[in-house]
Write a structure and sequence with these properties.
5-stranded antiparallel sheet; alpha+beta; 4-stranded antiparallel sheet; about 300 residues
Length: about 300
Amino acid sequence: MFNSTHTLVGIALARAGLDRWSRHAAWTAVIASNIPDIDIVAGLYGTSTYLEYHRGITHSIVGIPVLSILVAAAMYKFSGNFWKTFVIALAAMSTHLGLDYLNTYGVRPFLPFDGTWFYGDALFIIDPFFDVTLIAVLAAGYFLSTRRRQLAVIGLIVVTLYVGFRLELRNLSRAYLAGFQKAAVSPLALNPFQWTGFIDNPRDVSVVGINAFRGVVSQPFSLAKDPANAIIVRASTSYSARAFLGFARFPVTTVRYRDSRYFVTFFDVRYYNGGSALGAKVLLDPSLQIVGESVSFVQPLD
């Protein structure tokens, strides 16, 4: 989820009662609820490195307790109680993992032992209803200071119920794709009843619009996969391709020959917008030597 959501959840947790348990609980909760995203520093070394390490060890059941200890140690001077601060940090940081699981980007919670991605597919990365609900109760608590704790609790209950509602809509939408071996649905930002379905077939990936109560509501379109060959195999050994394919969920590969070079594009249909998509592009010379590579938004069908 976007960091605004993590911050609002941290503030709400503090107001819901944690701030009565330890000094500076709000600061602890806000820092802890955002600190797993410290892995964005990997982006300083390029997009490929970012994809390889983002939502990695700092978003795992190993990394979160370690980071909670570090946050508690840093805040101890201000809170005066290490273990209470640690519990607050651990509680707030755990919500980060849970919220990130709920969108289609996914998390790898069992690193470093298992790098499998897990996807909740229930919330868009920025969910307006979720954020506005927490903003409303926190703002109301500013003016109704004697009710701020109750308002924060109510806000957390409402967004929890909302998440449950979205999970049920996801299940209804996903049921229409039950006949396919590998398929998933993705939420839209503003309409909880409309979903995008992805179907991974041997030769292509199909995309279809789904209404949670009415089923498939649009004609599917498909993006063809080029069959595996020596060119694709060679391109997939590049760092950009390896990092991208480790992240991609519905990958499609295309090969084009132009200007005496092979242009191999790997892209993820989750991020295809009709013209471009997040992907890796690898350039090979006629002897299949890698002469260029990158990860960015690419034109996959050029």
